[in-house]
Amino acid sequence: MRPINLIPPHERRGSQAPLRSGPLVYVLVGALVLVLAGVTAMVLTGNQVSEKEGEVATLASEDATAKAEAEKLASYVTFQTTSEQRVATVQSLANSRFDWERVMRELALILPSDIWLLELNASASGEASGGGGSGGSLRGSIAGPALELEGCAEDQDAVAGFVRALKDIDGVTRVGLESSELGKEEETTSTEVTSASNEPATSSECRPDMAKFEITIAFDAAPVADLEAEAEAAAAAPTAGSTETTESSGTAETTSTESSGSGE
Fold it and tell me: E strands of 183-246, at which residues?
């Protein structure tokens, strides 16, 4: 015969008592798990934020230190930049400098005895030409250094010989004859007595029987002077006295009325 337990189930004890379970228990357990996960995530996030804030503070400190060092070295950087610019300017000026002394020396050596120079204008570039000398149209087409000569010759053959002689000057690339005209047949004298004094005044014109010429000599192979660089160098360099060198401005002008030959 099988035994039957007559005690109500809720009053039973031991292994025979049924388990009390329901959906509320699972809800509570799930809520606790979610809370634990949220707390863990907040702790981890807080730790990461603290680490990032520490890195930001370190980087800010390093940036401030680097800026302070840069400010200390800024004057040296400025000095180096200025020094490099001045060296480049000096090198440019040295490369573009033209040896007028040599040209004038060679011109004096090849000048024939039947040629008289009235005016000579030397300029390192077309922009530097001050409009002196003959002012011929050929000068405007020459970018580099050039000589403009105006003078008198015994005749047209002497002018032609002078043009050929000018080509022997070192560095000359072309010689342009602007004009060559014989003087008028009117009777004139090369000297005049002024009303102010009894001393004769030298005339700047040729005798009627002579040819007056205008010649332009080009040095196209020579480097063109950088006038802006020269101006900057002149402004940056300290002034030494009141002397001025005509060559530093890119021009050299001389006027000569004396004869290179026998004269009259």
Answer: 191-193, 200-202, 211-218
- Dist. CA 165–CA 249, nearest whole Å: 29
Spatial CB neighbours of 226, under 8 Å, sequence gap ≥ 6: 92, 93, 96
Does residue 119 contact residue 256 with C-beta atoms inside 8 Å? Answer: yes
Of the candidates 246, 213, 224, the one whose C-alpha atom is nearest the C-alpha of residue 136 is 213
Name the pairing type of β-strands 211-218 and 174-182: antiparallel
Please, what sign has the CA dihedral across residues 218, 220, 223, 225? positive
Phi, psi at residue 192, to the nearest 5°?
-130, 150
| Helices within the chain (DSSP H only) | 23-96, 100-110, 156-166, 227-236
Looking up tokens 């060092």 gives 69
Q: Is 189 helix (H, G, I), strand (E, B) or coil?
A: coil
Q: Token pair 């004859």 is at which residue?
A: 177
The overall average pLDDT reported for the chain is 74
How far apart are the C-alpha atoms of 31 and 9, rounded to whole Å? 31
* C-alpha–C-alpha distance, residues 195 and 31, integer Å: 129
Ranges of the chain whose pLDDT falls below 70: 1, 10, 12-22, 93-96, 126-137, 184-204, 223-264
Give the Cα separation of 118 and 216 in Å (integer): 14
